[in-house]
Amino acid sequence: MSSPPPGSTLSTTQITRQAKSNLAMALACLPKERRQDMISFYAFCRVADDIAESVHLTEEEKEHELSHWKQCVLNGEPPGHPVLDEVIELPGKYGFPRAWLAEILDGVASDITTLRYETYDDLLAYCYKVASVVGLCSVHIFGHTQPAAREYAVQLGYALQLTNIIRDVGEDARDYGRIYLPLEDLRNFGITELEVLNGRHDQRFIQLMELQYRRARGFYREAERLLPPQDEDSLLASRMMAQIYGEILEKLRDQRYPVFEKRMRLHPARKIFILLSHLWKGWRAKRRAYIAWQDS
Fold first, then answer.
1. What is the CATH number of domain 115-286?
2. Distance CA 18, CA 169 (A)
3. N or C terminus of the chain with fewer C-beta within 10 Å?
4. At 89, phi and psi to the nearest 5?
């Protein structure tokens, strides 16, 4: 992780710049105030994750720290932390429950002790907390207007998190001894946990990953179906994330899931093209609407 350890005094903006994530780039399309609030929210998720993955803290210290954060967000009490103090204001400002922030922290905290998921449903329950709830908070900050945007956020959260899981199989196994792929799936394809931990890449593994690919792709399709046309502009950052991660998913499949060899990324130039193309489409749509209004 590139973020600072717990207790750092780095600002939320500095944390976002250090992370150099796809989301950090996507936020460039937001109005200034919403962008700054999303940076604060992103930093909250990032630092919470860093606490859970810290090599400097014991399990008990990690759980205590995240439990403290949870009580702070539920009670709305700023603890004097440069990240948490900013995030605590967001539920009241944008009208979403404080419990959503606590649910994200619960999902992050599960990474401290949970290294395996028995079933696909177990995995989806985890994905909901660490990704779909993040999406629900995000669409409120983005300024959605239609109820369907919330279900869009849930489905896209599943899609993005499953893409992350597919991409990071090798890193999770090597660095943390963690396997997010459901154990029931491993057994169905005759794959042992040890083979995943040792990075065995064969036809059985490719078939296993094809199953995960189909699941992720299904969530992308459902999210696209649910996207309200009225919110296409306000959810521009989400749509960019969907395209970036969707293209990463397709690259993984095209290259037969080389997840034990490298971490799949898009070239920065491609991500900039995606950003500019979405901004261009948004501008054209607004111009057509303006012309139609003038002609009416």
1. 1.10.600.10
2. 23
3. C
4. -80, -20
